[in-house]
Write a structure and sequence with these properties.
Helix content: 10-25%
Structural class: alpha+beta
Radius of gyration: 23 Å
Number of domains: 3
Strand order of the largest sheet: 1-4-5-7-8-15-11
Strand content: 35-45%
Distance between the termini: 38 Å
Number of strands: 24
Shape: globular
Length: 325
């Protein structure tokens, strides 16, 4: 894990040290190349040296370990690095406030999105849904943000050469419509962009440079985006557990963007063979440890019931748990 990369890049921003910036870039790039990491504890083998090793699917890799608890720290690593790279490349003109978040050991990053920031003098909020923009040239990284009138995409060129490429924009996310032309404008950095039409526009970004593109946004998307940043009423009972503490559940809310319940067993597969989760009448079976389940919830109250098949062949049922506003 290269969570230190963003911290190193922030040092580069404040000191102007180009060596630190290159070190940070190489740390993130290297994270996706061949390296043994913890895997070396699993098997002594040369399989890690094979060029296609990191490209293999999950079930094809039998000589290494998987650490599922690294998923969220890894997302934080990338998010923190991208936002910080925009800060560094723009000379502080793309700046979003962050808060320190603790993973464990050395998996420490900054969290963003809770407060608006600035993109070349314009106030905007980070909004980075998966698949929003897809550059044809993969040398371009980006972060995205919105205000009341526009979508902003800040492209960062990872190559030393100028990149000019098409970018596909997912209209289902952005709210734009086919058959119309939308104005784009480079408001900062070094580059150029063409009109957005039928889900595509062109952008040019200088080598190792940055280009902040402002895209006019149709009115229908504005209330939807505003809703994502509107605070909700706090739930009275966001957490519950069975009397024996074998099962725990909690609401995981992201404003109006998503509302879920997360349920999990504290027992492992040495004790349980199979479990069933029922959330508001919808039942899901789980036969693999860790025994856990995430389900969307729509109302202001949700009921969770669970049962399990033990290794001895006995069925255990627990009392109903309730979460409510």
């Amino acid at each position: 894990m290269a969570n230190y990369a963003a911290w190193t890049l922030r040092l580069a921003h404040y000191t102007g040290d180009g060596f630190l910036a290159r070190t940070a870039d190489h740390a993130v790039i290297g994270r996706y190349r061949n390296f043994p990491g913890y895997h070396i504890n699993t098997a002594r083998t040369t399989v890690y040296e094979k060029a296609d090793y990191p490209l293999r699917g999950h079930m094809e890799l039998g000589a290494n370990s998987f650490h599922y608890n690294h998923i969220m720290p890894h997302i934080s690593l990338l998010y923190d690095f991208l936002v910080t790279q925009a800060l560094f490349r723009s000379g502080g003109k793309v700046d979003f406030p962050g808060e320190f978040i603790e993973g464990y050991a050395y998996l420490q990053s900054k969290f963003y999105g809770h407060l608006p920031g600035t993109i070349y003098g314009r106030e905007a909020r980070l909004w980075m849904p998966t698949g929003l923009a897809t550059p044809d040239d993969r040398q371009l990284n980006y972060i995205s943000a919105v205000d009341d009138d526009a979508l902003y995409i800040v492209f960062m060129n990872q190559s030393a050469e100028t990149v000019e490429t098409d970018v596909a924009l997912d209209y289902a996310l952005s709210g734009h419509s086919d058959g119309r032309h939308y104005r784009t404008q480079v408001i900062g950095g070094s580059g150029a962009s063409g009109q957005l039409a039928d889900g595509r526009f062109t952008v040019r970004v200088a080598g190792n440079g940055i280009a902040a593109v402002r895209i006019e946004t149709p009115p229908p998307v504005r209330p939807q985006l505003a809703a994502l940043f509107t605070a909700e009423t706090r739930w009275q009972t966001p957490y519950a557990a069975t009397q024996d503490d074998a099962v725990r559940c909690m609401r995981v809310g992201f404003g109006r963007a998503a509302n879920n319940v997360f349920v999990y067993f504290t027992q492992d597969d040495t004790q349980l063979r199979k479990v069933w989760f029922t959330v508001d009448g919808r039942t899901t079976e789980d036969t693999y440890y860790p025994f856990e389940h995430t389900a969307p919830i729509d109302g202001e109250r949700t009921e969770i019931t669970v049962k399990a098949l033990t290794r001895q062949g006995r069925i255990i049922e627990w009392e109903t748990l309730e979460l409510k506003k």
